[in-house]
Design brief:
By secondary structure, this protein is an alpha/beta fold. It has a single domain, classed as NAD(P)-binding Rossmann-like Domain (Rossmann fold), CATH 3.40.50. Helices cover about 45% and strands about 15% of the residues. The strands form two sheets. Strands 3-2-1-4-6-7-9 form a seven-stranded parallel sheet, with helices on both faces. A two-stranded parallel sheet has the order 5-8. Helix 3 runs parallel beside helix 4 and helix 4 packs parallel to helix 5. It is globular and about 60 Å long. The N and C termini lie far apart (about 45 Å).
């Protein structure tokens, strides 16, 4: 990181939910936040409270040209960008058979391509600085999968692959990358922020509980405290050796090791078959 002292953050999707709470905590800590949202008016309250330490910007992260222009302007106005939090995103509920083509494309446009465009735009800034930290807002759904959330999970798995690769590519430039694998936090993610496929009656029994769980019935009742997520990220970016992956929330911290343990067990169970597909050793090129 760039050492002690105030940092400049770029936070996408900062107008509501987890992004807004994290921005608030970061600003209270004395840092500056370049806050983006699809509607700049949604950031007025934040700017009114923290003055010129908030740089509000209207941005649709799916517009690559607009992203590059916004990042260039933000870097010029703030002088540097120390941390980028790719937080903009939303959930898509529906069985794999239920989701429409447009719903899937829209999901990836925001959750994957939006984060990719912001990352590509900010990397030259960080390379010039010789420092920076890219935080990709992943999810426990980037570690495991859930019925009725298959395409949302797919978008997070894609983000995980890009983030892990990126970490290897930019470490030599002094840039760190962390995938934030968050559990359930108290927001409207499963309510107003959720897009839902048209349900097929064939899945009424199979997905009954999952549909109810993603109906908004439990919005703002989730166990995770968004402010504490912000406090955790402040500690993360202040670390001299931040991890490539960070679980947030008790449920995520409990579930991820169990899921990976089961995966290792299955690999071991089928190890003998896995080793039947290579050419004999004497036929391979030394």
């Amino acid at each position: 990181m760039n050492g002690p002292g105030p940092r400049v953050w770029l936070i996408t999707g900062a107008s509501r939910g987890l992004g807004r709470a994290i921005a608030q905590v970061v600003l209270e800590a004395g840092d500056t936040v370049i806050a983006t949202a699809r509607r700049a008016g949604a950031l007025e309250e934040l700017a009114g409270e923290f003055g010129d330490r908030v740089v509000p910007m209207e941005l649709d992260v799916t517009d690559r040209a607009a992203v590059f222009a916004a990042v260039s302007e933000a870097a010029e106005r703030a002088g540097r960008i120390d941390v980028v939090l790719n937080n903009a995103g939303y959930g898509l509920a529906g069985a794999v058979e239920e989701v429409s083509e447009q719903q899937v494309r829209d999901q990836f446009e925001v959750n994957v391509f939006g984060a990719l465009w912001v990352t590509q735009a900010v990397l030259p800034v960080m390379r010039r600085q010789g420092s920076g930290h890219v935080l990709q807002m992943s999810s426990i759904a980037g570690v495991t999968t859930y019925p009725n959330l298959g395409l949302y999970c797919a978008s997070k798995w894609a983000l995980e692959a890009v983030g892990e690769t990126l970490a290897q590519e930019v470490e030599g430039f002094g840039i760190r990358v962390t995938l934030v694998e968050a559990g359930e936090f108290r927001t409207d993610w499963s309510a107003g922020s959720m897009v839902r496929a048209v349900p097929k009656s064939a899945y009424d029994t199979v997905l009954a509980r999952r549909r109810h769980g993603l109906s908004g019935a439990y919005a703002h009742l989730q166990p995770g405290d968004p402010r504490k997520a912000g406090e955790a990220l402040l500690k993360l970016v202040g670390s001299a050796a931040p991890p490539v992956r960070l679980l947030l929330g008790n449920s995520a911290a409990d579930l991820a090791p169990r899921v990976l343990g089961e995966r290792l067990e299955r690999w071991r169970e089928w190890d003998a078959l896995a080793r039947t597909t290579d050419f004999p050793a004497q036929e391979t090129t030394p």
